Every structure is written in C-alpha cells, then in structure tokens.
Amino acid sequence: MSFQGRVAGTLALLAASACAPAPAPTGQPSAELSAEARAVTGHETPTVDGSAGGESAGGEPADAGVTGDPVLLLTETAALRQLDAAGLDFGTILSGRRVRSLAALSGDRRFSDLRAALQADVDAVAASDPRAGVGMKNSHRLFDMSWLSSEKTRLELIGVVNRVDRQPFEPAHCGETRLIYRLAYTTELAGEPLSSRLPMTVNVVFWQDPEEAGEAEASAGAPRCRDVARRWFPGELAGAALADALRGPAGPLSPARLAASRLKSVELNVQSVRWPAVVHPSLAGHAEYVLRVFHPEGEGLVPSPLENTPDVARLKQDKRRREALLAWLRDPGNLEAIDAGTAVMPEEFAATKSVSVAPRGFARLANRPFSQLFKPAELESLAGLEGAEHLRTPRGLLRRLDGLACSGCHEARSVAGFHLLGEEPDPTSRLDALELFTSPHLDGELPRRDRYVRALAEGEAVDDRRPLSEFEPHQGAYGTHCGLGDPAFSAYACDEGLVCRDVGDPELGACLPAKPTYAGDPCEVGRMRTRQVAHQDRCVGQTRERCPGGAVCNPNNIGFPQGMCIDDCDQLKPGENCGAMVSLRPFNNCIARREPFTKCLGVTTRKAAMRTCGSDVPCRDDYICARSPNADGGVCLPPYFLFQLRVDGHVL
C-alpha cells in the first residue's frame, strides 16, 4: 500500500473544503523540502514500525509517545469501501439512512436544502445568460440539476481528512474531520454499462474534540488536543483493517465522534457552467465553480458565511462597512495573523456564496476578492509589512488575503478548481482516468500537516504558521510559480535551465523554458485583460511560438491554455511520454449522437508525445496528470479533455 493511500492530506478546501484557508508548508521555498514532501505524499514509501500509538484498545490515551505514521488523508479505495459499509456512506452521514441513489434522498430535509440552494445558483446563471442551458446543444453548458434526483447517481466517499491542524481557527475545538464525497453515476447506453464521476464534491465536516471524561483527566498537564491527535496513529494497517481501526470505539471515526451533535458544516464545490474553447477561445475555455457552506439548523441546513471571503458586491455599496474591513486589516494583531495564515475575518464582512473561475487562477480578478476591494496604494501605510515573513509589500498582503479566501484557495495550483478528486475506482482503466488525483497545492500541504500532528501527539509545541497557497514540494521545478519582481515573492525562484515567464498573473510567473523545447511546452502565451465579470476576461497579444523539430502548437482556441506543443511518439525525448490526443469536434459529435463516451474516446484519439508527469513531476497551471492508454505513467492534458471533469456531454 502506498503511503499516499494511507496518509495523503486535505481539502483546504476541498480539495475540498469549500472554504478553509489555503495553507501550505511553513518556511520559505527550499530544495530540502522536496524530498520530505515526496515521502509524505506517497512518492516514496517509508518504513512504518507497526506499533499503534495514541490510545489503547479500550480507548484510553496511552502514556507512551506515538509511533508509526499518522493518517492525514485516507484515499485508499479498499479502506473507503469498508468505511462506506460501516456507516460513512453519504446517506447515513447526512440523513441517518443508507440509500442506493440520490433519488432516495428527495424527501430528506438536509439534502433538499442543499439542492434548493444549488438550484437557485444554476437558475441565476441561466437567467443572466440566454446562451446557457443543459446539454451539448447549448454553447454555455450548465450543471444538470436532474442529476441530484436521479436513480443513477450517488455521492461516493473519496477521502477522509484529518484536519487537527485547523485548531487555531476555532480554539474551542481540536480541529476537524472531513469526509469528502464526489458525484458519480452508473447507467447503460447502447447496451453498454457506463459510469463516470462528475465535477461536484461535497465535504461533510465534524468537529474533533477531547472526550468529556477520561481523556481530559488522563491528559492533565498535557496539551489539550494531544490525545485527539493520537487517535490518528493506527499502526501499520491497510484496507479493511485500517478502516475498522479508524471506525472502532477508540478511533477518530467512531460513531460517537461523528455524531450529529458534532456536525460543523456541509460544503459544496460544483462546476456550475462550462464554456468550451470554441466559445471562449483566448482562454482555451471558461468554467465557473459555485462554492457554498451550510451549517446545521434544526432538521435542516442553512447557507452560512464563507471563511475569509468578503462579500465584494455588498462592501462596494456600503462604504462604511468597507472602511471597517480596512480598519480590521490595519490592526497589528490581525496583520500578524494574516502573515501567519491563521487570521479569521469577522463574519459581518463575509459572503455566503463564492464563485471561482478557471483557467488562469490568480491572473483572473474574479478569484481575488480582496484585490477587487482594495488597491495596493491603500495599504502602503500599513505598519509592520516590511518585517513580516510573507506579506512584506501591499501586493504580498493582497495575495495572502486572496489565498485565504475560498475562490483563491480553490484556484491555487488546483486541479480544475479542486484539490482532491479521488483515486480511480478501476486501477486498470486508462481512458478518462487520472494518474494523479491530488493537486500540487495539496501535495505541498502534507509535510506541514505531518509535522503538526506528530508534534501535537507528542505534546510538543506546534507551529501554526502557513506559507502562501502557491507553495508546493517541487518549488522551482517546471510549471511551479516564481516571483516577477515584487520583494514579497523574491524567494520563489526557478531551477537552473528554466526562466520565470510572465503568463498573465500580476505577481507570480511560471518556471518554464525560455522557448518551446519539448512536447508539452507552452507555445501561445499572452497578456491577461481581466474584469470583475469573469466571462469578460480575455488573453490578448498572444504570439504563436515555433515548437521544436516537427512538433506543432495546439493553440488556446482548441482548448490548450497558453498553447501546448505536441509531437509524434516515434522519438520521445527526456521528459516526454506517449499519450492520447482527443480530436474534440469528432468526440463531441460522437457523444451528441448518444454514443457511450468510452467508445467515442476510443475512435477519436490518436497517439501524441506530451509532457510526462507523476508524483515528482508536476504539470504546469491548468493541466492535469492523466493516465496514458499508450504507455505507463501520466501525461499533462488540459483538464476538460477528461470527460469526468466537465459537466457537458454526460447522458444518464
């Protein structure tokens, strides 16, 4: 079993918390972190000494120190299936009863509250856009709300997340436990069984707390949350045995510890609409993701303020409230917490809905709510910026704030707006399959969380600080971010042989070759012209660059952000792999005829050399690491070339 299946980490997200801050490992970027991060995320498999620490079989805290490795994020399919069978299925967690499909939840109050809010969000898109509708016949393709009442759909458990490190955000508790579910379906088309996942995740969050008796008494003199952290050290277990230990009376997922009284929130991340590249050619397409958080209230769920996400429209209209938020930013204590990444903005300023957009991340103003409200010049007089670890300049402060907001978090080195998409249920599948199902941001988070949980479990001092959301374990490598001159980002440099190219983001560029050199390199880079209305964003001044040898440039207008060089597979160079390139128009025509998408993929793809990718080799922004049907390993593809990451074309 890989270390990642056992301990890989979060959803700052969600990846999916729809709205936790976007943390990253402590300290400045360094080559030394890369090896540690690779080990923690399963890119290497460390030895586990096997003895279980934390609690005895009877549930009492152990006096000895912990041994082995903590569970940070459980993604192993066998363990998740066992947990599903043991009561962590979505129906039981949300409504107290197991269901076979989402149709069976149609009368459930809590699920109805979620569905009603999302229906209103999708209706709002349709009302403002006459070209929006469900299905391939529309140029702007909406999320199909019928999926949430279908006999063919379900929400699959794809991850269990230990967020004991979230303690600083609500000191009354010992962090959170998060259960991540992803929308999926199974149907039959043209006599062929067909299944796929869809771009929607639901994050069900529970408080972690010490026991009212027993632990508190046994922990006298120890840090309050020490024994909570120790629950996550189950020893060298895998699959069903690991699931049973976590779900057992002494485990962090016991029925008592996931009781309804400990439910904190239910959080949504949903691709609400997608414009294909032919409709939005300069950006290689456009997609919007609705982010919402609901808190329990009686038998139902109510939309609630999003953490560190200001209500831009309301604050722009209310100058007094905007000035109050600016005064909050000016407070030295708040600035210190912002620098550490642990600040919590007062809810009076917060929105109850956010929309993140892709591609191009922080290059798009819609993903940066604080930058919509304040200009750098307004923040120049703030005391303490120069001596801060991460802020240092007004632009550094704004980027940190934007990264703490929901929309900024979900677009920081993410996988099409998500940080966790789940292990592929079929390990043999090569079509429409992810090679890596975690984002570079998430991979970069895991070493920090590992250090935090270990220190807390040992009763040692913990480090609550979190660097900027763009930090990742391969900082300086191909595709990672680099500073464009502002002193706040001077530590973000590129490895030898790469240059920091301006790709439209005002503060950070991307580490790339100075000119196209290999398959997968960008070949049509331009400048961003961004607006608060996201679909008005454009990339201008694009120049088509010559690809090496016989390679050709696939441009933005056919779905390749910043362009992508492709070649044939006859003579692969270092860093290249043989993938499958889909011809989108024939593919779309095929699925429009209601043919199974698996058949359409099979008849509309051709071999092509692309950039290789894997756990130690990240893709650049707006590309995902997909399995190749033509070779071992992965290749970097635009995300919407994977059918499971787009709302359009699915026939249930």
In short:
This protein has helices at 3-7, 31-40, 77-88, 90-95, 109-128, 215-218, 226-230, 239-247, 312-317, 319-330, 332-340, 369-373, 394-404, 406-410, 440-457, 584-592, 597-603; strands at residues 73-74, 132-133, 140-142, 153-163, 176-189, 192-207, 263-275, 286-297, 300-303, 354-358, 481-483, 499-501, 508-512, 524-529, 538-544, 552-554, 564-566, 576-582, 605-613, 624-627, 634-637.
| Radius of gyration, in angstroms, nearest whole number | 23 Å
Rounded mean pLDDT score:
88
Number of strands: 21
- How would a crystallographer describe the biggest sheet? 10 strands, mixed
Question: How helical, in percent, are the residues?
Answer: 10-25%
Percent strand: 15-25%
**With helices defined by DSSP (H or I, 4 residues minimum), what is the helix count?**
17
- Low-confidence parts: 1-18, 20-62, 213-218
Distance between the termini: 34 Å
Quickly give the structural class. Answer: alpha+beta
Shape: globular
